[in-house]
Amino acid sequence: MTSDPATLSRWVQVRQRTALATGLVAADRHCSRRQTVTVLAAVCTMLSACAQHAPPSRAVVGPSNTGGASAAATVTSTPAPPSPGARPLAQSSRTAPTATPTPPSRATSSRYSAFTATVIPVTAADLPHSWHPGCPVGPAQLRALRLGYWGFDGRPHTGTLVVAASVGAAVERIFADLYAARFPIRRMLPVDAYGGSDNASTAADNTAGFNCRAAVTPGPPSWSQHAYGLAIDVNPVENPYLEGDRVLPENGRPYVDRALGRPGMATPSGVLVAAFVRHGWSWGGLWSTPDYQHFSTSGR
């Protein structure tokens, strides 16, 4: 018998049909009902045995490219190549996919922190040089504000301003605006860090608020608005006080020419003045004796 799979398959099919026809004819012509059942059972057994010896079917895909002869070929499943630029899909898995953690936002992973403001009550012990009995307000009426600010080094810092409790919220908003605009501030310390000396504090270009002292403006002696915690001097070197030929602090003289518009300066249309005015404060730079560093709630 041939070993060609296609020929063998046709031979098995012929044998199956022949056996079935022979069995049915015999059962119909020569057998009783019981004998017919027996014959049919034998035919079924024969068909089953023939099927077990039949080779597996193979799909014919057409003539071979070799010699032009017809041949049988097994159809295999080959994945189509990906289209240009397409990313291959990951193989499926029987296990449930694992959730991927959300990457930190740009805000939380930033090297710079957001603006911060902390309000702290003060006592006489916190103001050893800037307050004394007889001042127009007591320590209970003051607050120390820990505020974020941008330095001239282009980095964020935290400083402390002592102001009246009544203006604390407004001061927070003012310095939040300055922080958002990255307006540079040299330093921010209570004047007590300079022994309560206004001259030493301004010469160090220190931004400060409360200091129980007299006003430096011409006229009869009076309390400065700083003595009430209602005034703030910002970047005194870049924004000196001018009275005739007098410049305070003296090292602010290079900044007398306001047309230069250098960093840290207060100008009528600049960020610093706009932030204070927006929250109801006045600027001393518009006075007849300009005090460019000075901002107050009263305009004095």
Structural overview:
The protein is an alpha+beta fold and 300 residues long. Helix content is 25%, strand content 14%. It has helices at residues 5-30, 33-53, 168-180, 198-203, 271-278, and strands at residues 117-121, 142-150, 156-164, 187-188, 206-207, 231-233, 241-243, 246-248, 282-283, 294-296. Helix 1 (5-30) runs antiparallel to helix 2 (33-53). The longest helix has 26 residues, at 5-30. It is globular.
Helix and strand topology:
Layout: H1 5-30, H2 33-53, E1 117-121, E2 142-150, E3 156-164, H3 168-180, E4 187-188, H4 198-203, E5 206-207, E6 231-233, E7 241-243, E8 246-248, H5 271-278, E9 282-283, E10 294-296
Parallel strand pairs: 4-5
Antiparallel strand pairs: 1-2, 2-3, 6-10, 7-8, 9-10
Helix pairs in contact: 1-2, 3-5
